[in-house]
Amino acid sequence: MSKRKCKFTEVLRAKYPCFTSGRDEFDAKCSICDCHVDVGNKGTTALERHVATEKHKKMIRAASSSSKVTNFFQPSTSLILKNTHAAEGTLASHTIKHHQSYNSMECTASLTRKMFADSETAKNLKCGKTKTEAIVNQVVAPHTITTIIETLRNISCLSVATDASNHGADKLFPILIQYFNWTGNGIETKILDLQTLPNETSLSIANLIYETLSTHQLTTKCVAFIGDNANVNFGGVNRNPGVGCPAHIMHNSLRNGIELMKLDIESIILKIFNYFSVYTVRTEALKKFCNYVEINYQPLLRHSKTRWLSLFPCVERVLKLYPALKEYFLSQRSIPYLIKSFFENTTSEAYLWFTHSLMSIYQANLAKVEEEHNSVLEISKILQSVLHMLRNRRINNFLPLSVREHLRDNDEAESISNEFISVYKAYFKGFEWMTLLKENENLKYDDLVSCIEFLRIRGVEIDDVKLHDQFCNLISFLKSKSNEDEAYFDLKLHEQWTIYFKSVKNIECFSELLKICEFYFCISAHNANVERVFSLINTQWSKERNRLSVQSVKSIILTQYNFKNMSCEDFYNYLLKNKELLSKIGSSAKYD
After folding, report:
1. N or C of the chain: less Cβ packing under 10 Å?
2. 158 with 221: CB under 8 angstroms?
3. What is the per-residue burial (b if ≥16 Cβ within 10 Å, else e) of 464-488?
4. Which three-class secondary structure state does DSSP give residue 565?
5. What is the dihedral of CA 202, 207, 209, 214, to 10 degrees?
6. Band (432; pLDDT cuts 50, 70, 90)
7. Per-residue model confidence as pLDDT tens digits over 252-282
8. Percent of the chain scored above 70 by pLDDT?
9. Is 531 a domain residue?
10. Phi, psi of 34 (to 5 degrees)
11. What range defines the domain where residue 453 resides?
């Protein structure tokens, strides 16, 4: 009769943890000695005999005094390595987001390892100047372009914008695009490229834009161009329909109105600032006059004729310091004639208050116009609001109390008042074209017919049968919102559409409406986004950081602008979820 064999069971595994399953169920492997023990005949006795051998004891002593070679290497998929690469990528983004120099990372990395010595991630952190720049230039910046192109695959329309800015001998041209992404934030603006050109002729700019769009296969999706040059602003190319820049329109109407006044307020403001700007002695004397008339001194502000919003705060500051300025200049023997005659004029303060009153309308509305996510319709509403206020002031011959008080006892009060009213008329004339814009109170499907025909001419095909059904669904949605959620209608227009699209389960239920929205919302309402890019460039490419190459500046701006809505913490979480990006951060290929 055969004897039943013993097996290496879980009970034996728990009792002798140095053993694991062997070649079969009757065999056990010693992880210390790397040998096999047959338990089929002797069972527990065989294991105990092996543990008691001199060989096993010697191997235990050797293992306790040394480490395995594999302990010195981390698998590429380890959690520590993943966190380290995410930390390095985030620190690179953090450095440029907060306008720090790459040199600062030499200190940051070593300091982090010192302060967080108990952190395995910090111990492995090696992100100095060279590595940080390589991560930005070769990993993060190209990734932003890849992400944009991936998003644009499902979007039918976009607009492109550019402008020129000089940085020393370099003429910089950023290429920006705007599109409507209903799965994201609605209206989105991204920068595709930043290049230098030897000149800024129309042909050079056109070739740059075409090459950039062709590289990413986007030429067929471009439906509008936003530029800031003579041909655009003055109608040099009539075959292209131009609607004008609303910010320029408001700015130009403001300047044209001011120029009708006898006193040149803009020149006065510049003269006063220049008089004090580089003279400490004059500034200190003005401070004494401020103390004398019991006014808190504040530095005078500089106005630039090319900046739309700079005149208002300059006028406001001069008004605050007016008593001290008047006392100071009238006490001086040798001052510029223009300044002297201005402060000797008893009506000069009335001119300042009138200018301030008018500019307050423009100041608030220009700030709204320059917001990033405005649509053309919202811009038209802002312009109509300005037009309405100017019309009411003209009809009522309105003058602020501050102006009336300074004209009350003046012999020229009537003629000056008439002069101010004529300024209202000049402002109003700049907005006459806006009277063509009307809003429909009750929207009907027939109102969409002209829209369909307009888009078809421009190559955007709309299925009118589907559109009718989708339009009916939209009306039902709006009625429910008007009854339940009044705050919905206070949102920006593109946000309202985004909420509607996300509320519908199937894209087939709004496909035609989406085509219309993608065309409409991709048209930028202004060129302020390009100006924002120039501001970012000037902040990054400063006198202290003048050794940056154009390629480095391009990578910095691509990363900073295209990820502008993402905080450093959000970016860290974003990296942790992107294995491909983490792999590139850890790869040596980024130094090529």
Report:
1. N
2. yes
3. eeebeebbeebeebeeebeeeeeeb
4. coil
5. 160
6. very low
7. 667 666 777 777 888 888 888 998 888 889 9
8. 83
9. no
10. 55, 50
11. 445-522
- Is 220 inside any structural domain? no
Q: What is the mean pLDDT of residues 190-218?
A: 91
331 and 468 inside one domain: no
- Nearby residues of 172 by Cβ (< 8 Å), 6 or more positions away: 164, 165, 166, 194, 195, 196, 534, 537, 550
Name the residue with higher pLDDT: 316 or 482. 316
**Residue at 423: amino acid letter:** V
471 compared with 145, residue with greater pLDDT:
145
- Is 328 a domain residue? yes
- For residue 378, the Cα-to-chain-centroid distance in whole angstroms is 20
Q: What are phi and psi of 166, to 5 degrees?
A: -90, 130
pLDDT greater than 70 at residue 66? no
Position with higher pLDDT, 157 vs 22 = 157
Give the end of a domain, one of 522, 556, 577: 522
Let me know if residue 345 belongs to a domain: yes
Q: How far is Cα 220 from Cα 157, in angstroms, rounded to an integer?
A: 8
Cα 312 from chain centroid (whole Å): 26
Residue-wise burial string across 225-238, b where 16 or more C-beta atoms lie within 10 A, e elsewhere: bbbbeeebeeeeee
Q: Are 403 and 357 in contact (CB under 8 A)?
A: yes
pLDDT at 430: 42
What is the 3 state secondary structure string of 32-81?
CCCEEEECCCCCHHHHHHHHCCHHHHHHHHHHHCCCCHHHHCCCCCCHHH
266, 276, 343 from 285: Cα distances, Å: 24, 10, 17
Tokens for 102, please give them: 């790459």
364 and 254 fall within a common domain: yes
The answer to whether 141 and 92 are in contact (CB under 8 A) is no
Query: Comparing C-alpha atoms, which of 457, 456, 468, 450 is closest to residue 512?
Result: 468
Do 449 and 429 have their domain in common? no
User: Is 223 in a helix, a strand, or coil?
Assistant: strand
Using H for helix, E for strand and C for coil, what is the string for 320-352?
HCHHHHHHHHHCCCCCCHHHHHHHHCCCHHHHH
Q: How many domains does the chain have?
A: 3
For 139, which DSSP code?
I
User: Which class for 81: exposed (0-12), middle (13-18), buried (19 or more C-beta within 10 A)?
Assistant: middle
> What is the reported pLDDT for 305?
62
Q: Identify whether residues 387 and 307 lie together within a single domain.
A: yes
Handedness of CA 233, 235, 239, 245 (dihedral sign): positive
Residue 468 has pLDDT above 50, yes or no: yes
Q: Give the other-Cβ count within 10 Å of 541's Cβ.
A: 21
Please indicate, yes or no, whether residues 274 and 400 belong to a single structural domain of this protein.
Answer: yes
Contacts within 8 Å (CB) and 24+ apart, 275-284: 275/335, 275/336, 275/339, 276/300, 277/302
Same domain, 339 and 485: no
Q: Do 411 and 480 sit in the same domain of this protein?
A: no
Q: Would you state the pLDDT for residue 176?
A: 95
Q: Looking at residues 307-334, what average pLDDT do you find?
A: 84
Residues 380 and 409 in one domain: yes
User: At a CB cut-off of 8 Å and minimum separation 6, what does 295 contact?
Assistant: 320, 321, 323, 324
Q: Which residue has the tokens 């008329």?
A: 425
